């Protein structure tokens, strides 16, 4: 996505400064102020109330899967999805200045980061310690001081966290498997990309629930098949505190103004209820590199 260069604008994210969400904000909005929030709802609320212009929210990870909480939060907001961003996860082993790799006895980070670096941790004979957040552990390590009891401890976090907290990178790409990537959605109060440009490749995201009739999901999605529209993501989730019906998040490779998409949406609307278009946005270049599109 191409963004305006305006230092007076704000983008909200969940986590501590130096988190991968913060890193994504810097890449997509390099001249904006990034605002850290304790949770996802707070980040979305900052956009809803006008304090922030955008929110950078992770939806899924190639290793850890979907971020379950987001699917419950999105229906509660009136925000629009205006873009996507794919951020490669480069875990770094961080330590206090001057500490050598041979001194490290224990390593702390978020449980998912520890799991993604499990084999390297075992090979180096380190003891993993689960904490709440990658960047938060880097911050705590930097504040602990350079006493001997802290020199045997490392954190797994981003390279940005090392820069922010003056830590040394003992090992880049510390994860066991390369290619770990997180997909983020960018939220705004106002929709964008409403006019179809033939040279662009678009993704449309939507939410819906099916009507209580036999084969409702099959019939609701049939219009995309008959109109030649590629569905690239379909997630089901329970919403509203009941177990009565599943709700769905759907991403398709099309723009709402394309004739085939118009016909597909008409059929979806006929066999579903509570249909809501979350937004339409250009496909991220990562999809072309990874043969997603």
Q: Can you walk through the features of this model?
A:
By secondary structure, the chain is of the alpha/beta class. The chain has helices at residues 20-28, 40-48, 68-73, 111-116, 118-123, 134-143, 159-164, 216-226, 259-271, 285-289, and strands at residues 10-14, 33-37, 54-61, 65-66, 80-88, 92-95, 106-109, 127-130, 153-157, 168-171, 181-188, 202-210, 231-238, 246-252, 272-282. It is 28% helix and 32% strand. The longest helix has 13 residues, at 259-271. It is elongated and about 70 Å long.
**Rg (CA only):** 21 Å
Give the amount of beta strand, in percent. Answer: 25-35%
Shape from CA axes? elongated
Low-confidence stretches: none
Mean pLDDT: 92
In short:
The protein is of the alpha/beta class and 293 residues long. It has helices at 20-28, 40-48, 68-73, 111-116, 118-123, 134-143, 159-164, 216-226, 259-271, 285-289; strands spanning 10-14, 33-37, 54-61, 65-66, 80-88, 92-95, 106-109, 127-130, 153-157, 168-171, 181-188, 202-210, 231-238, 246-252, 272-282.
Task: List descriptors.
293 residues; alpha/beta; 5-stranded mixed β-sheet; 10 helices; 28% helix
Topology at a glance:
Elements: E1 10-14, H1 20-28, E2 33-37, H2 40-48, E3 54-61, E4 65-66, H3 68-73, E5 80-88, E6 92-95, E7 106-109, H4 111-116, H5 118-123, E8 127-130, H6 134-143, E9 153-157, H7 159-164, E10 168-171, E11 181-188, E12 202-210, H8 216-226, E13 231-238, E14 246-252, H9 259-271, E15 272-282, H10 285-289
Parallel strand pairs: 1-2, 1-3, 7-8, 7-9
Antiparallel strand pairs: 3-4, 3-11, 5-11, 6-9, 6-10, 12-14, 12-15, 13-14
Helix pairs in contact: 8-9
